[in-house]
Structure formats: C-alpha cells, structure tokens
C-alpha cells in the first residue's frame, strides 16, 4: 500500500504488485484478512516465493498514513505465530524489524490490531447487525461554543459530512438546558457562561469498518483551513452498546491537539438499523477468512488436545465426557502456549 504504486508496477519484472489500501483506510478487517490470506497462499505455494511489503514513511503535510506495523503484526498473527495480544505483536515488530507504528493514527491502529487478535480467539462475532449513528456528543471541551466544527463519517466507501450547516446543541445533553447553534458554529449557553458540552444529531447507518472525524475550521491568511480535532476508527462487529465512549488517549490526532484537555471525551450514540442486501454475505466471507487461517487451525488443534486430555481424565474418573466436552468446547478458546 503505497502512493508510488505506478513506479513499483513498472519496476516489478517478476510477480505482481497488489495495492490493497489504494482507496481505503488501513483500519479495515476485511481487507486485512484478505491481504493476509493472499500473501499466505502465495508464500506457501512455492518455497521460492517471497512477499515484500512496500511502505512509505509518514511525512508532514502529506495525507499518507503508515500502516506497515499494523499489516506486519496482523500477518504474523494470521500465520499462526504465537502471540498474547495484538499490541504485543506490534511491539515485537518494532523491536525486531524496526518497523514503527503510525504516528498520525496510532490509537486506531493499536485498537484494530488487538481486535484482529481477538477475532481468532472468540467462537463467533459479537455483533453482526447494521447500526445507526444518531448522535455524537463532545464533553469537557472548554469554550466549545467558539469553535466551528463538522463531523465526517466514512463507512462502506462513502463519506457523509454533517454539522457545517446544521445545528449543534450546546450545554448538558443529559438535561434540558440546551441552546441552539447555527451555520456550523456552536453558540454560547444562555446567560453568558461558556458551556463545555455539545452534541449533534445525525442519521447515518454504518456497517463493518467505519471512521468518525471531527474537523475544526479556522481562517488563516484570509483562507479557510480545515484540520483534525480528532479521528477514531471502529468496526460495528465490536460495538455492542448503545453508547460508545471514546477517551482522548484513543483518538487519532487528539494527543497532539492543544485544544483538547486531558479529560476530554466523545460519546457516540447508536441504535439498531435495518439490514441491507450484502450484510450477511460480508459476515460469511469475513468468517471464512478467519476459519481458513493457520492461526485458527492452531487454536482448534490446541482445543482438540485439551478436549482429549480432559475426556480421558473424565473416563478414568467416571465422569460424563459428552456433557463436559460440550461445556469445554463452548468456553473461551485458550491462548496459544
């Protein structure tokens, strides 16, 4: 995944060049699994086959995001390399190969690599429903009424921007003391006191991987400038509550933003949405990649050894191997050891 894909295509005289993330965020479980599966099939098909990950460093003022550590960690886990967690594998990649994590989107990539590891450990996906994001609220942001903000939600390859010409609500969203802002800005609370909470009503359906970005607008040299207030990436697979709280430490660009205090957080408000054509197929293909992975095969092999050992002990002790075996199989999978 590189902006210099055309150069690589010209210079690759043997094999082929694949650009998996040309138009997509690297925080994408389906693409990560598809990439891992493709590379594993290639390198195991012939002992002379090799795979080379071509990456470019993150540069100031350039939109490219380095996902090399994320991809390398996911591939090693997919291939069955022993690990106790996604973040630990990413740290191993840094120490061993000097491939560093993204600076711009480190929190989201660290979250994704941990959930990537978890997908192989759990017997089923926690949530397969499509969700509706109907509100986002910002908390503990001093003088929020002076900011001009917008919300951008990217899901299923489509971006939707809200808030530039919509009304943000200012004040404590848990009470009725709300005031109305307009034209994208957030007004001050009535009475002259500056509120530190604001919310925006939305109506956006999300499914699979999605990201939420809050943009801040300002005027520099008589020209409008847009910059991140923060960004965060998720998958509906692991969103299992109607309210999802995002702390500052889990926000991309957030830790580098002087506008955000240490106790700032955002709340995403969800409800169930109507399923759409293709949702079920997405889940099936995602599970197929997981079930066919070397990592899953090793986990099932370890479960089988554990089951046989427990079964023999129950037979010798006069227990009920069928019942106990069923309970054992449906319990959380043991980690590789």
Keywords summarizing the entry:
four-stranded antiparallel sheet, alpha+beta, 8 helices, six-stranded antiparallel sheet, globular, 337 residues
Distance between the termini: 33 Å
Oligomer: single chain
Order of helices and strands: HHHHHEEEEEEEEEEHHH
Radius of gyration: 23 Å
Protein structure class: alpha+beta
Helix content range of the residues, please?
Answer: 25-40%
Mean pLDDT: 82
Note poorly predicted spans. 175-194, 320-337
How many H/I helices?
A: 8
Strand content: 15-25%
Largest sheet, in brief, is: 6 strands, antiparallel
Task: Give the structure's gist in a few sentences.
The chain is 32% helix and 23% strand. With 337 residues, the protein is of the alpha+beta class.
Could you please describe the fold and organization of this structure?
- The protein is 32% helix and 23% strand.
- The two termini are 33 Å apart.
- Helix 3 packs parallel to helix 5 and helix 7 runs antiparallel to helix 8.
- The protein is globular.
- The protein is an alpha+beta fold and 337 residues long.
- The C terminus is likely disordered.
- A hairpin with a 2-residue loop joins strand 7 and strand 8.
- The strands form 2 sheets. The protein has a 6-stranded antiparallel beta sheet with strand order 5-4-6-1-10-9, with no helix packed on it. A 4-stranded antiparallel beta sheet has the order 3-2-7-8.
């Amino acid at each position: 995944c590189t902006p210099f894909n055309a150069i690589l295509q010209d210079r690759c005289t043997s094999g082929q060049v694949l650009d998996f993330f040309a138009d997509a965020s690297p925080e994408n479980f389906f693409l990560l699994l598809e990439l891992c599966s493709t590379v594993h099939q290639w390198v195991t098909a012939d002992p002379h086959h090799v795979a080379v990950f071509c990456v470019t460093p993150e540069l100031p003022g350039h939109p490219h995001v380095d996902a090399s550590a994320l991809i390398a960690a996911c591939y090693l886990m997919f291939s069955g390399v022993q690990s106790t967690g996604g973040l630990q594998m990413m740290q191993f990649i840094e120490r061993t190969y000097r491939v560093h994590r993204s600076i711009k989107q480190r929190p989201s990539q660290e979250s994704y690599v941990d959930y990537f590891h978890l997908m192989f450990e759990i017997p089923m996906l926690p949530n397969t429903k499509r969700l509706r994001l109907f509100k986002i609220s910002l908390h503990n942001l001093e003088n929020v009424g002076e900011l001009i903000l917008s919300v951008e939600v990217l899901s299923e390859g489509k971006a939707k921007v809200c808030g530039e010409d919509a009304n943000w609500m200012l004040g404590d969203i848990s009470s009725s003391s709300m005031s109305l802002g307009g034209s994208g800005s957030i007004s001050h609370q009535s009475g002259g006191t500056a509120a530190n909470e604001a919310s925006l009503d939305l109506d956006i359906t999300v499914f699979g991987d999605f990201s939420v970005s809050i943009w801040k607008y300002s005027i520099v040299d008589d020209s409008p400038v847009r910059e991140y207030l923060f960004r965060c990436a998720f998958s509906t697979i692991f969103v299992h509550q109607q309210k999802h709280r995002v702390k500052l430490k889990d926000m991309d660009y957030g830790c580098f933003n002087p506008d955000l205090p240490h106790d700032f957080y955002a709340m995403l408000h969800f409800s169930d949405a109507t399923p759409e054509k293709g949702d079920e197929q997405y889940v099936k293909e995602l599970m197929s990649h997981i079930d066919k992975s070397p990592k899953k095969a090793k986990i099932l092999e370890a479960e089988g050894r554990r089951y046989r050992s427990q079964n023999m002990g129950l037979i010798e002790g006069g227990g009920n191997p069928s019942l106990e075996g069923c309970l054992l199989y449906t319990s959380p999978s043991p980690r590789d050891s």
